[in-house]
Write a structure and sequence with these properties.
The complex is a heterodimer of chains A (442) and B (75).
Chain A: H1 26-38, E1 43-54, E2 58-65, E3 68-75, H2 76-86, E4 94-104, E5 113-123, H3 126-142, E6 160-165, H4 170-181, E7 187-192, H5 200-213, E8 219-223, H6 238-245, E9 251-254, H7 263-267, E10 270-271, H8 275-282, H9 287-376, H10 378-391, H11 394-399, E11 404-406, H12 416-422, E12 424-428, E13 433-437
Parallel strand pairs in A: 3-5, 6-7, 6-8, 8-9, 9-10
Antiparallel strand pairs in A: 1-2, 1-4, 2-3, 4-5, 11-12, 12-13
Helix pairs in contact in A: 4-8, 5-6
Chain B: H1 9-25, H2 30-53, E1 59-62, H3 63-74
Helix pairs in contact in B: 1-2
The chains are: A alpha/beta (442), B mainly alpha (75).
């Protein structure tokens, strides 16, 4: 014992005959023992964690293997950080602890105790941890829970975005910066929660459920600035993942980097590399540009409608003009034809008049010739004909003493047989006629 | 408008683009043009209204505040 306990002012009497020094006050001895134990080398131990219990200020457990056991303890704040990094710790797990011997010397009213004071801890073999996560991932996939969020439609222009993050972390500022980059100024509902201790998973799940319960929230972002896989183990919590899978609103996970993929990244609608990225995914359009595009579209719409109406109006105007134009052309054509017809008529009349004049002249000429002929030649001819006719006149023969025999109806009787058949005849003399009967008895 | 009322912002914006393309083609009849222009104006007004809702000042609420506000509105 390097530090000998101090002597008391009134030394007690030891055990007679016993060669050992003392007696010393036990408090002095306990303090010396504490100093001595704390001087032991700090080491790492490996063993099975058993009999874990959380007290008000410290966590207590035993570390055992087949050869023995050491009581261990850790301050609660240290324990929470360690379990957050390592994941949920429970009896039976193989763990490595780092620390050293400690001794609580007790007091007049409290019992002393020895423990290995643990300052760091990890689950023995990260491969086991990863294997456990992988088993859970396969189980969630088999139940279709990795797809449910991906089937939800991401709103193009959310009005209210819920964000689950640490109140003091950088992720909060990154989300705001990402939204500002999109010129988005809607409503953010902050649901602050621890993001790396053993209370993180249930707190995050409860926050997401509360956000989804509000009909006003369009989607949620779970943001954390990244960290080692041990830091992110709360995002591999089975209850949290199942909760997210069943939410009505899409959840964007931005809790780590691609090298540290958590189960929440698999379950969420979208896994984003950073909180800024998550904000940009939450609002996929640039609101400022969208406003400009909308204004341009409205302008084009106005121009198109004006153009369409004007072109139709022009067409209608042309169509309106077409009949009157047609009538005007036809009227002009008719006037032209009328003028031509009149001119042709006048020409025809003049021609006919000329022809008729000529014909008239010719007729007159012929008439004059005929008149001349009639005046000078026809009387002599007439007289000649009269004379010739007179020469053949039977009256002239009758005057020379001949008589003409006729039937009662005036037909000439030229032979005896006719006279016999007639029985009665008329004898026509130059001065008059007499009736006579024909005798046939001789 | 009743059918377009169900469209998301993105779908409404895509529909406006389709309307503009149809109008630009010059193949739409006069009555179709008037119908498309009316529909396009309605969609643009709706999109503008949605943009307006996220164009003011950023509003930040804690979840508890939102819950309290919603409960207050429910009462």
């Amino acid at each position: 014992m390097p530090n000998r306990p101090r002597s008391v002012s009134a030394p007690a009497v030891g055990i007679p005959g016993n060669p050992l020094p003392g007696p010393y006050p036990v408090g002095d001895y306990a303090a010396a023992l504490q100093r001595r134990l704390r001087d032991f080398a700090k080491v790492q131990l490996i063993g099975e964690l058993v009999n874990l219990r959380i007290a008000r200020a410290r966590a207590y457990f035993e570390l055992r293997d087949s050869g023995g056991a050491v009581p261990c303890s850790a301050w609660l704040s240290d324990w929470e950080q360690m379990s957050a990094r390592a994941g949920e710790l429970a009896d039976g797990m193989q763990v490595v602890v780092a620390g050293g011997c400690d001794y609580y010397q007790g007091s007049s009213s409290s019992s002393p105790s020895f423990s290995f004071s643990v300052t760091d801890l990890r689950i023995a073999g990260e491969g086991d941890l990863l294997a456990r996560i992988e088993r859970l991932r396969k189980a969630l996939a088999a139940e279709g829970l990795l797809e449910r969020q991906k089937e939800l439609a991401l709103p193009c222009l959310p009005k209210t975005i819920g964000v689950v993050c640490s109140e003091s972390g950088k992720a909060r500022d990154d989300v705001i910066a990402g939204l500002a980059r999109r010129r988005w100024s809607g409503r953010i509902v902050w649901a602050f929660a621890p993001v790396q201790d053993r209370y993180a998973a249930p707190a995050i799940a409860a926050a997401l459920q509360d956000l989804a319960a509000s009909q006003a929230v369009d989607l949620a972002i779970v943001a954390r600035g990244g960290g080692s896989l041990a830091d992110l183990l709360c995002f591999c919590d089975e209850t949290l993942c199942r909760t997210v899978a069943m939410l009505r609103i899409p959840v964007l996970a931005s809790v780590g980097h691609h090298t540290d993929r958590t189960l929440l990244d698999d379950v969420a609608a979208v896994s984003c590399s950073t909180p800024t990225h998550a904000a940009e995914v939450a609002v996929p359009i640039h609101c400022g540009e969208a406003r400009s595009q909308l204004a341009a579209a409205a302008q084009r719409l106005r121009a198109d409608s004006k153009k369409a109406l004007l072109s139709r109006a022009r067409s209608l105007t042309l169509l309106c003009k077409a009949p009157s134009e047609h009538v005007r052309r036809q009227r002009s054509l008719l006037h032209q034809q009328l003028r031509e017809a009149r001119a042709a008529g006048r020409r025809r009349i003049a021609l006919e008049r000329s022809l008729n004049l000529r014909r008239l002249t010719a007729i007159a000429s012929k008439a004059d010739g005929a008149l001349h002929h009639n005046r000078h030649k026809r009387p002599a001819e007439l007289r000649r004909l009269a004379l010739a006719l007179e020469a053949h006149d039977p009256q002239r023969t009758l005057r020379r003493g001949y008589a003409l025999v006729q039937t009662g109806d005036g037909k000439p009787v030229t032979d005896a047989e006719q006279a016999r058949r007639a029985r009665e005849v008329v004898l026509r003399f130059a001065d008059s006629s007499v009736e006579a009967k024909v005798r046939t008895d001789r | 408008m009743s059918e377009n009322g169900k469209l998301s912002y993105e779908e409404a914006a895509a529909r406006v683009e389709a309307i503009l393309k149809r109008l630009d083609s010059g193949e739409a009849s006069l009555s179709e043009t008037l119908h498309l222009v009316r529909e396009g104006k309605e969609l643009i007004e709706r999109c503008a209204s949605e943009l307006e809702a996220v164009s003011g000042a950023l509003e930040e609420l804690r979840l508890d505040d939102l819950v309290a506000r919603l409960e207050g509105e429910a009462k």
